[in-house]
Amino acid sequence: MGTIGQQPSLDTAPQSPPFGPTPQLMLIGTSYKSSPIGFREVLARKVGEDHIGESMSAMESALLSTCNRFEVYLTSRSPDLSYASFLRRAHELTGFEGMESSFYQLRGPEAVRHLFSVAAGLESVVVGEPQILSQVRKSGVDSRRNGNAGAILSPMFDRAYRVGARLRAAYGLESEEASLSDLAIDAIGELSPGKHDVMLVGTGKMVRLAARRLKGSARRLYVVSRRKARPAGLEWCTLVRTADMGRVAAKCDVLISATTTGRPLITPAELRGRKKRIVVDLGMPRNVSESVRNLQNVKLIDLDDLARLARPGRYPSKLKGAESAAAREASEFYDWLVQTRLTTTLADLYAWAESIRIEELRRATSKLNPKTEREKRIVEAMSRRIISKVLARPAQFARRKQGGLSEEDKLELLGSVFGTGASGEK
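RESULT FIELD:
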């Protein structure tokens, strides 16, 4: 706050500071609902490794790239230009034509609602799938560490993690069994009932969940790993060296792979012979060569196949309540963003009023000429109280949850009424 000794010239009327367009929150993404796995795979490999936020002129950006979705969250003063820049850069990196139909674009509160729903597992192939919650958290942490997320995206991803965890617990969506590996094993059982010799490739969480589900129901369980000892959670499996993978695969009728390798680990060469096999690829990028699908004796199931096999509404009685709760949480958080991050209307209004207070205080003190420091403090305190009382009702109006207007509309109205220009461009 200013002091009497730091006043502007009496000849200068208080001016509204210049304002540019306010930042807007937006999401550009694609998922198993809107694009095939091959498209998402190339995006993750080429666009995900690019500094995509810079080419979009984004103020902040965060990438959420998982096996079933590729989403860029950002703030921009020119969202339409940022979207066009994203499409142009994605085309340059991938060579894909006509990509626009594969992407969805959400802005403002809808972008927040989508992220909260994703964190709660409501947008997953298997409702409540647990891995996505930690992936949302990691995305927020990574974007903050690399300097791409700041005052808007950092709290948004933090809140998404907390909301996701809370909704899972409140609506019973947090089951560890709600996973893609669980869905895959159900699919295997429907295609080929009975006991199987199963080879697992990888030692991550997906494989451990599959091994736990298969324990006792498979004839033999093998796990392919570079490790010298069997990892925790896979103690009952027979350890197989990578070099012996082809030999063991020849003995198995079910293969399940879930690694983060950047190249196919299973090709037609590992599946020679007439033995009928089911091969499940849970990897992203894919672990199994697409050419395996052409083998007559092999049934290949990838992530897109699992999405088609998934039965919607695993928790029909809980979904509606969880979706409504996510929408409420998103609305409340976005209101907070508007008031504190996305617009500066209230701060600009107080700054405008403060400039008037300082100017008029200088005029008054030059005429009154208070003699003591106590008199000066009394006059200044009076001017501050006047400003505080005059602006109390506009501030309450902006923050009140009623009146039929959105937070943005109310703040824009205040900017227009008081002539601060702080509402910016829509």
